[in-house]
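Bumping my old thread because nobody answered last time. Still need a sequence for this structure:
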């Protein structure tokens, strides 16, 4: 053909093979890793590869900034070893300078220890204002400082200075040396990103857009020049340490980040944060919202590690700081700074709401006096409706995920207001009235998205992935509060129960059965939440503590030889046939329970704790305790069954059966009695055994 040279077939094969080899080489050389975040890559924009990136921050959607999983943070799989090495090389060429600097840095432990031993810090400045010297809460409207202000005293002379105090040069040098020991930004960015995506929904202590905005500004400022910069560094380190407690996870199966093991990262964050905390206290004795948050995160980390007492102490410290800065009063008070915007005020309200929930739950669980003893003040409750991750719907229509925390605060406020206690004196009528009032007044006011039987959940569950998880946690909080309402019935002695009127004895028996139904529902809820979270190992206490406490309740009930009360159950069912889900949504008045069902639920709870015990010390201790209690209960049950079988054999064939426990004279008398009166007496009056679980220790 014209215009095309004729090629020899061999030359054609050689040409094609050469072209294929060149194209393969060029494709391998030109292949590059996508460096932009997913939103910017979708919009074909090149971002600065930070978290959050410059474009997502400019679009006011920092929480949507996300990156594809880097091969440097994932364990290489055997079939793709060569491909993974290629990506590792490319990533290292991009960050070679940062990695080299990280390698030249001294270890966190040695650097922090040298800094602490370097000479320490001088005491903070001497207090000069009236509020600092006398300890008055300066935002009060009823204490002495309010009267002093009424007489015309200057605010600067009575309260703390609103101007940030400069950081002394010596302190700045110490802080700078500590900052050199923290992990590099790529590691911190990864942990912060993981925290926002996978962890923050559990406690919702921070609002992601608000935090990410401060996080980006913090990287751009001179972090050791102000007390805020040092304090925010502690918050970032506490968040990263807390997030690392949940790694590896089903969504992120890693044990190191940028080649640094998670244990070393966690230790580095904790050591530097512990060293910076006293510096912050010296620079600002009063505290701030940031301090409340990082102290609370330190407590949450302790709870994940099975140190509940440390969590309780951290909560105490956070509450004290919160009271000093006025989180417990209305944020619209005229004493607050005019520079505080509405979002900042809302963050203060939400933080105090979390403190109130933790204080109520922990004080009830530990049988302690709450740090915030008063009822919830409506003026301190969150007011803004903030929606995350939904740009194509009206904000007013979408549910606010923080509603779950508000509802838990309302649960705590309900039981505080209606005075359910853990005292020895138990009034079954009062407990019944509290339960009926809770079902008739509180439950109907729950928003439809969080209702016990939601009708509109399918509309939002697919759009908000954490909404089903939060709904399940809220339902578990309801069941736990009902357990606390009826649990004092387990502490009543047999002698005191017999002295009660007959109707109170029946009511007390019904409460024990109700307690069994609630505990079974709670264990089912924990199992459902565990499956929603991936069904794997986790350190979150929301799975461990309810599992252990509900199982102990069921063991106490099963240790009672009169449980379940069958006669009372029949009577109760006849009087509650007209009950509906609105008056008795959990079916505590009509649901029959069996002892075998309770024992099986305890075994399932034990299996869950044993599974979680591989990574959680709290689960390990709980599993060990349940194993011991369950074994003793089964041993006592076997002894009781053996005694009953012995009496039954005596009743059916007294000539053949010989009980070694009987004396020969007693056995002879039994044989000589025509109607076996003594044997029948023994059958009707079986020996009583102390079946209380508290007699096992």
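Sorry it took so long. Here it is:
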């Amino acid at each position: 053909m014209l215009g095309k040279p004729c090629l020899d077939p061999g030359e054609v094969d050689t040409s094609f093979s050469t072209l294929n080899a060149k194209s393969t080489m060029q494709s391998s050389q030109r292949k590059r890793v996508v460096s932009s975040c997913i939103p910017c890559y979708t919009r074909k924009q090149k971002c600065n590869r930070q978290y959050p990136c410059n474009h997502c921050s400019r679009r006011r959607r920092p929480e949507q900034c996300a990156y594809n999983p880097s091969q440097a943070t994932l364990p290489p799989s055997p079939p793709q070893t060569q491909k993974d090495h290629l990506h590792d090389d490319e990533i290292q060429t991009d960050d070679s300078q940062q990695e080299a600097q990280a390698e030249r840095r001294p270890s966190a432990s040695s650097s922090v220890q040298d800094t602490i031993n370097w000479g320490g810090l001088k005491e903070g400045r001497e207090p000069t204002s009236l509020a600092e010297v006398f300890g008055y809460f300066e935002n009060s409207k009823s204490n002495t400082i309010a009267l002093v202000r009424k007489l015309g005293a200057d605010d600067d002379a009575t309260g703390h200075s609103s101007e940030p105090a400069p950081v002394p040069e010596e302190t700045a040098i110490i802080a700078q040396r500590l900052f050199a020991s923290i992990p590099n930004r790529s590691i911190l960015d990864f942990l912060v990103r993981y925290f926002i995506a996978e962890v923050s929904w559990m406690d919702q202590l921070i609002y992601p857009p608000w935090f990410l905005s401060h996080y980006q500004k913090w990287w751009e400022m001179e972090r050791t020049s102000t007390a805020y910069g040092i304090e925010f560094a502690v918050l970032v380190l506490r968040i990263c340490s807390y997030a690392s407690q949940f790694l590896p996870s089903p969504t992120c199966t890693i044990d190191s980040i940028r080649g640094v093991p998670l244990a070393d990262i966690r230790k580095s964050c904790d050591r530097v944060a512990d060293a910076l905390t006293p510096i912050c206290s010296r620079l600002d004795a009063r505290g701030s919202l940031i301090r409340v948050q990082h102290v609370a995160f330190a407590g949450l980390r302790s709870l994940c590690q099975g140190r509940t007492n440390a969590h309780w102490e951290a909560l105490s410290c956070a509450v004290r700081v919160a009271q000093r800065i006025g989180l417990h009063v209305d944020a619209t008070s005229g004493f607050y700074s005019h520079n505080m915007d509405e979002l900042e005020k809302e963050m203060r309200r939400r933080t105090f709401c979390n403190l109130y929930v933790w204080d109520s739950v922990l004080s009830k669980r530990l049988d302690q006096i709450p740090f915030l003893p008063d009822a919830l003040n409506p003026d301190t409750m969150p007011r803004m409706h903030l929606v995350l991750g939904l740009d194509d719907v009206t904000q007013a229509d979408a549910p606010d995920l923080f509603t779950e925390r508000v509802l838990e605060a309302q649960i705590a406020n309900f039981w505080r207001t209606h005075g359910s206690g853990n005292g020895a004196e138990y009034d079954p009528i009062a407990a019944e009235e509290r339960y009926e009032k809770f079902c008739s007044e509180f439950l109907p006011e729950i928003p439809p998205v969080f209702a016990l039987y939601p009708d509109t959940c399918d509309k939002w569950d697919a759009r908000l992935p954490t909404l089903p998880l939060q709904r399940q946690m809220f339902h578990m909080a309801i069941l736990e509060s009902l357990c606390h309402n009826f649990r004092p019935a387990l502490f009543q002695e047999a002698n005191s129960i017999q002295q009660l009127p007959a109707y109170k004895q029946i009511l007390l028996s019904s409460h024990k059965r109700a307690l069994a139904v609630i505990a079974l529902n709670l264990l089912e809820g924990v199992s459902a939440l565990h499956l929603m979270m991936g069904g794997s190992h986790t350190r979150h206490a929301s799975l461990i503590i309810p599992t252990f406490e509900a199982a102990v309740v069921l063991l106490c009930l099963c240790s009672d030889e009169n449980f379940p009360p069958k006669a009372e159950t029949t009577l109760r069912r006849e009087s509650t046939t007209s009950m509906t889900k609105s008056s008795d949504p959990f079916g505590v008045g009509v649901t029959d329970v069996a002892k075998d069902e309770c024992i099986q639920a305890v075994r399932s709870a034990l299996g869950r704790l044993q599974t979680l015990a591989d990574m959680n010390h709290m689960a390990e201790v709980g599993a060990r305790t349940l194993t011991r209690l369950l074994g003793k209960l089964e041993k006592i049950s076997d002894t009781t069954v053996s005694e009953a079988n012995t009496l039954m054999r005596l009743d059916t064939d007294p000539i053949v059966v010989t009980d070694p426990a009987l004396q020969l004279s007693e056995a002879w008398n039994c044989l000589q009695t025509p109607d076996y009166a003594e044997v029948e007496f023994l059958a009707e009056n079986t020996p009583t055994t102390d079946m209380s679980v508290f007699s096992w220790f």
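The chain has 29 helices and two strands. Let me know if any region looks off to you.
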